[in-house]
Automatic annotation (TrEMBL), chain A:
It comes from Pelosinus fermentans JBW45. This is L-serine dehydratase. Belongs to the iron-sulfur dependent L-serine dehydratase family. InterPro entries: Fe-S_L-Ser (IPR051318), Ser_deHydtase-like_asu (IPR005130), Ser_deHydtase_asu (IPR004642). One of its GO terms (molecular function) is metal ion binding.
Automatic annotation (TrEMBL), chain B:
The keyword Iron-sulfur applies. Pathway: Carbohydrate biosynthesis; gluconeogenesis. The keyword Lyase applies. It catalyses: L-serine = pyruvate + NH4(+). This is L-serine deaminase. CDD domains: ACT_LSD. It comes from Pelosinus fermentans JBW45. Belongs to the iron-sulfur dependent L-serine dehydratase family. It comes from the Bacteria. InterPro entries: ACT-like_dom_sf, ACT_dom, ASB_dom_sf, Fe-S_L-Ser, Fe-S_L-Ser_bsu, Ser_deHydtase_bsu. Pfam families: ACT (PF01842), SDH_beta (PF03315).
Amino acid sequence: MEEKLSLQEWIDLAETENKSFGDFCIEFQAKELEMDKRVLLERMEEMLHVMEQSVVIGLTGITSMGGLVGGNGKKVETYRAESADKSVVGSVMSKAIMIALAVGEANASMGRIVAAPTAGASGTLPAVLFSLSEARGSSMDELGKALIVAGAIGMVIASRASLSGAAGGCQAECGSAAAMAAGAAVELYGGSPEQVGQAVAITLKNMLGLVCDPVAGLVEVPCVKRNAGAAAQAMVAAEMALAGICSVIPVDEVIDAMAAVGNAMSCTLKETAQGGLAVSPTGILLANKLFAKVES
Amino acid sequence: MNIFDVIGPVMIGPSSSHTAGAVRLGNLAFAILGEGVKEAVIGLHGSFAQTYRGHGTDLALAAGLQGWATDDSRIPKSFDSAKEAEIEISFTTINLGDLSHPNSVRFWMTGVNGNKCTVTGASIGGGRVVVTNIDDFPVEFSGDFPAILTMHRDRPGAIALVTSILSTQGVNVAQMKVFRKQKGGLAAMIVETDQPIDDAAFEVIGKLPHIQSVRRIQLV
């Protein structure tokens, strides 16, 4: 069995070398892939372009394959335009909510997305990256570097726990996406490697135990709205980390706790559509309707 | 695992297992048939049978049979394209038994040159797939490497001859598995290689003693 990765180990290396976590990750990953740093950054920027296109697709107000979601990203867009003075969370987070819903809806309607880390959680990273980069005026290179930070965090989570809802519940999908986005946000705002780790730990702690209970087994309800929730969790944790708040439980231990919680979780709550919202009266009603359609 | 397994792949939604994996299974079935598909009956098992419409699994499988990639924006329109190309694709639900992976599928295919082939496979998560049966032979391969599949008589030297041809062509064997139904009877061999197998080597292997048929499986 391969040795588990450690986020703390990478953070310590970056601190020792006096580098930002982004600079450390890009060098480390480029070496690992035997790839030029510039090429790696360009590949990440291609991913960012696909993400931007997913937002555009989502905001056209499409309806999903199962018909359970669609049009909500556009609703937030309209609300932002017409009722900006009534935003509860302010413009930046409201934009993140809009993007998360738009990409989630694009995914549910067979649009082109970047699975980051999965298709079901594909709205979270674009939401955090694009809303913050607009607020900060970040360059494409800075965004690419932040995405590499997100990827490195995801690799550690995959190695110590899981990125799949079937294996670890939604905490492993939306939770991991949020943790990756939180680390990316800290990087984008010039935080230290240590702060990246704190943001990851805080996010995962706040999303620990989240179950994967898709209605009718589709990546629609509650997945799309959970991406908006995950984006918000990422921003909350990044804000705390940048303010110097530390997680009492160290980051690698939090990831291990997530793995343990995932293992202890009943199979009915891991993507099988046999528990949680999937078996609520309305969830069952919708599933029966959809399956009847399939058979007809 | 590398960073592009986490940030990526770029794919058509909504599900890596039910959509992207389904495209790849279609790609593999198409590659194993080795010629354009004229007609395909696709049997869906387990979760594939239950939720295929909502995940576009049927569209994804049809796209895969036409050789499209998992990020091809035409996937939602794959039925229209199949119709235009006069490829007949139909779907049915099947029960492959409790031991089969819940996301399993079986293709009964006829090619444009009249060749027939039955392929069974499963989408095992994150877009990764495994082919488990070809023409009633239990096999196991992922399509991550170029591969050849032989049907041959179970005789001493049959395998050595194939690998010696590969070695003279500078092709390194990454993994190989041999299956047989009974001692001395019909056997199958899957050889996954690090380098693609060129036309010359492929033809020579087809003419080796004991070899009944050989298929080359190469995904882009």
